[in-house]
Design goal:
The structure is a homodimer.
Chain A lengths: L16 H13 L5 E2 L11 H12 L12 H15 L8 E4 L1 H13 L5 E6 L3 H9 L3 E6 L10 H7 L4 E7 L11 H13 L3 E5 L22 E5 L12 E4 L5 H11 L5 H7 L5 H28 L12 E5 L7 H12 L1 E2 L1 E2 L11 E5 L4 H15 L2
Parallel strand pairs in A: 1-10, 3-4, 3-5, 5-6, 6-7
Antiparallel strand pairs in A: 2-8, 7-8, 9-12, 11-12
C-alpha cells in the first residue's frame, strides 16, 4: 500500500531536542559525563505516600476500569484542594481526570476545535500544544511574546490577532519555556476579551505549585467558563504515571465525558489510586521541601548564567526553566546546543523546540538537577566561553 | 461564554449501557443482587507476576517518562511474542506501546485520517472505533454484516462500498460484540482489495488469546503494510492499567512517533514495567487456565440461552460475548434490557451500543462472571420468559 499519511503530519514537528538526547546517550555510553539540563522532568522520585497508595491498590486488586472521568473520590479530592489551597469553589462534577495534561488538552480540543478554527497561542510556548490543536484540525496562530509583556499575551495582542475565524485562546501560567506567571488581574483581563469575542479560554496550569515568590493564582478564580488544565507530573512528581486533570465549564462536562468514554475509556487506575495520596499533609510536606530546593537551584543558576553572558530576559517566577537570550554568545542556539553537548557535556534545549519567535537567539536550561551538578555545568560553560 | 462545542460532538454517542449501569448500581445500593453480564472486562485480577513486576518498578523508582513509543525492552518482548506464538517476524522498531488499544487507534487515525475521508467498518461493531475516527474528522461508513458472513466484512462488500472518498478499512478479529473470527485467508483477501484500492487496512486484535477452538491468526502474517492493534487489557487482564500496542507499517513509524511525542509523551511507565512480565511462562500458564474457564462459561451459556429462545447467530469463537438475536422474545432489545434489569437483576448490553444494523433485535451477554452466577442468570431469565 502506498505511503499516504494524513495531511496534518506535515504540520506536526518532532521534538528537536531528541536528536541531542540521542547524541547525549551515545556520548554517555562512551563514558562521557553529561549534565542533563534539557529535561522537563523533576529529578525527584514520586513521593513515597503516593507510591505506597498505588502499591496498596495494585496489591488489593484495584486495577479495573474506573469511570471515564475518573474516580469520584479523586475528583472530590481535587475539588477540596482548590478550596483549601486557592480558596476557590470548583465542583467535583466539573473535574475530569485525564492521561496527563496531554490527555486533558486532547479532550479539550476534541470538544472545542472545529476544522479551520484559529486559536491564539503564545510563542515561545510548549510546542505540543499547537500540535495537539492541529491534530483536531484547528489552526494554531502564534502571537510572538517577549520581555515587554513578560513573555505572556496581553489583551491588546488578543484584539490585534482576533478575527472572525478565531475560536479561542490558550495560555500557560507558569509558562514553559519561560517560567513567567499571569496575575489574577491579567487572567481576568484576557478572559474579558475572550468573553467579548465569544471565544473559548483555556489556561494551562501544569507548573502550579512550582513558583518561588508569589503563589500562582488559578484561572478557576476568574470565572467558571474557563477551561483549566493541570497535572500530577510536575509539582506532584508523577511524570511516568501519566495523570492530570481538567476543570471544565459545566455546559461541556457531558461532552467531555462522551469523548473520554470513546477515546480513552478511563485514566490509569493505579495512578489514580496513587494520586489519592497526593494531597495528604505528609505528601505536601515532601513537595514543599523539594520546591525550596528548586528555588535554591534557580537562585544559584540564574545569576551564574548571566555572569557568563546569557541574558535571562523572562522573569523565572515558576516551573524549573531559565529561558535565556544567548545572542551575545552565539549566532544560532541550535548549533550552540550541539557544540555545548559535544565540547562540555552540558545538554540544554535550543529555542527551536518552542516556536518560531527568534528561536535561534534562545536556549532553555532546566534546573532539574542538584546545585553541585549545576555548579559543575556553570564551570564547564565558563571555560567554554572563556569567562 | 456561549456553549459552542465542536461540530463532531453531534456525531459522537455516549455509551447507552451506562444508563443501565447507573440504574444497576442504584438497585445494588438498595440491596438487589445484580448479575453483571454487560461488562466488557474480565473478572479475573491482573496476574500476580505482572502486578509484582509493576510494584517492583514503582518501589525501585522506575516511574519517569519513557520513550514516546515505549520501553525498548517491552517492544522487543512483543516482537519475540509474535515470533514464538504466531511464527511471524515483526521488527521491534515497528511496535508502538500505547495507552490501551484506544490510544493505538487514536494514533492510527491521527496518522491516517484526513477530513472527509470515508472508512469502512462492520456494523455491529465496537462503537468507540467509529467515534475515534470521527474525532479525527474521518467519516465512518457502516457496512451491515450478519450471519451470512459470520458478522465479518467480505471482499464483495468492500467492492460494493468502496468509492473515490474511501481511505481504508478497519476490521476486528475476534470481533466485539459477536466474537467471530477472520481466517488468515479471509484477512489476506480483504488486504488484497485494500491494496488494489490503495487504501489503508487496520485490524483490531484486542481479543487475541481469547479464542476457544482455533487460534486467531494475526494480520501481521498477511503483510507488513497492515496496521495491527492489540491490548494488554483482555487476554493479559490489565484493563485499568491502560496499556496496548500497535504494529505499524515501517513507513509510518516516524509519523506515529511524532504524534506520540506530542499527543501523549509516553504510555504509563508502571504499566509498561508490569507488562514486561506478561509474556513469562508463569503468567501465560495463569492466562491459559483462565482461557479454559472462559471456554467453559461460553459452552454453558450459549446452549442455555438458546434453550430460552435467544438465537446465537454469530459463532462465538472468541472474546467473551454472546451476541444474541432476541427478536423471538421481544420487540425492542433496549426495552428488554431495561426490563430484565428491573425484574430479574440481569444486566446485559442492548444492540443500540453497537451500531444501527437491527440493534433492536440484538442483545449482548458477556460471560465475564463464573458459571454459578451464569447459571443463576439463566434461571432468572427462564422464569422471566416462562420457559
Amino acid at each position: 500500500m502506498t505511503y499516504r499519511p494524513a495531511r496534518r503530519l506535515a504540520d506536526i514537528e518532532p521534538f528537536h531536542v531528541v536528536e541531542l538526547l540521542t547524541r547525549a546517550r551515545q556520548l554517555e555510553s562512551e563514558g562521557r559525563d553529561i549534565i542533563h539540563m534539557e529535561v522537563g522532568e523533576p529529578d525527584f522520585p514520586t513521593p513515597e505516600p503516593i507510591t505506597k497508595a498505588a502499591v496498596a491498590a495494585i496489591q488489593g486488586g484495584k486495577t479495573l476500569y474506573t469511570q471515564a472521568l475518573g474516580l469520584p473520590e479523586l475528583r472530590t479530592a481535587i475539588s477540596d484542594f482548590y478550596r483549601e489551597r486557592y480558596g476557590v469553589a470548583v465542583a467535583a462534577s466539573r473535574i475530569a481526570i485525564t492521561n496527563g495534561a496531554s490527555g486533558a488538552l486532547n479532550l479539550a480540543f476534541a470538544a472545542l476545535a472545529n476544522p479551520g478554527d484559529e486559536w491564539l497561542l503564545a510563542d515561545p510556548g510548549y510546542p505540543c500544544n499547537r500540535h495537539i490543536l492541529r491534530t483536531y484540525e484547528g489552526c494554531p496562530i502564534s502571537m510572538p511574546v517577549g520581555p515587554d509583556s513578560n513573555f505572556q499575551p496581553t489583551p491588546a495582542m488578543l484584539r490585534q490577532y482576533w478575527n472572525e475565524k478565531t475560536a479561542g485562546l490558550l495560555v500557560a501560567s507558569p509558562a514553559n519555556p519561560t517560567g513567567t506567571l499571569l496575575t489574577l488581574a491579567e487572567i481576568e483581563a484576557l478572559a474579558a476579551v475572550c468573553r467579548e469575542k465569544q471565544g473559548h479560554f483555556l489556561v494551562d496550569e501544569i507548573y502550579h505549585g512550582l513558583t518561588y515568590e508569589i503563589a500562582a493564582p488559578t484561572a478557576c478564580a476568574a470565572g467558571d467558563d474557563i477551561w483549566v488544565i493541570n497535572s500530577f507530573s510536575k509539582y506532584f512528581q508523577m511524570t511516568g504515571w501519566r495523570l492530570g486533570w481538567m476543570v471544565i465549564p459545566e455546559a461541556y462536562v457531558r461532552d467531555v465525558e462522551k469523548l473520554a468514554q470513546n477515546l480513552v475509556l478511563c485514566p490509569s487506575t493505579p495512578a489514580q489510586h496513587g494520586a489519592l495520596a497526593a494531597f495528604a499533609p505528609d505528601t505536601i510536606a515532601i513537595l514543599e521541601e523539594r520546591r525550596a530546593e528548586f528555588r535554591q537551584r534557580r537562585d544559584f543558576l540564574a545569576p551564574a548564567l548571566e555572569a557568563i553572558g546569557f541574558r535571562v530576559t523572562a522573569r523565572p517566577e515558576g516551573a524549573f526553566y531559565l529561558y535565556c537570550d544567548c545572542s551575545a554568545l552565539a549566532d544560532d542556539s541550535f548549533t550552540l546546543a550541539r557544540d555545548l553537548l559535544e565540547k562540555t557535556g552540558v545538554a540544554a534545549t535550543p529555542g527551536l523546540d518552542f516556536g518560531s519567535n527568534a528561536p535561534e537567539k534562545h536556549i532553555r536550561f532546566a534546573y532539574t538537577t542538584g546545585v553541585p551538578r549545576l555548579a559543575e555545568a556553570v564551570e564547564r560553560l565558563r571555560r567554554y566561553f572563556g569567562r
